[in-house]
Amino acid sequence: MKAIWNNKIIADSTNTIMIENNHYFPKESLNIDFIRHSSTQTVCPWKGTASYYSLEVEGKENKDAAWFYPEPKKAAKEIKDYVAFWKGVEIVE
Question: Which of 12, 47, 57, 72 has a Cα-to-Cα distance from 18 of 20 to 30 A?
């Protein structure tokens, strides 16, 4: 699977995990040239506290377009160190 935004591959992996119709990509599959840390956090009742990344590609920013659970709750332990995308990031095979 590939995560694409602004015509660039943000992540590429054959080892994604599908939860709630979102592909979670292993952190090591991210192209770190396009990843920027964000201070945004949200809470999911069953997965825990999510942290976010913004994307920056060729001078364009997609704020908080990726999220991950650094310390997921037990029910979501399989997505520790995995990242999911939204806000116009296309997921393709």
Answer: 57
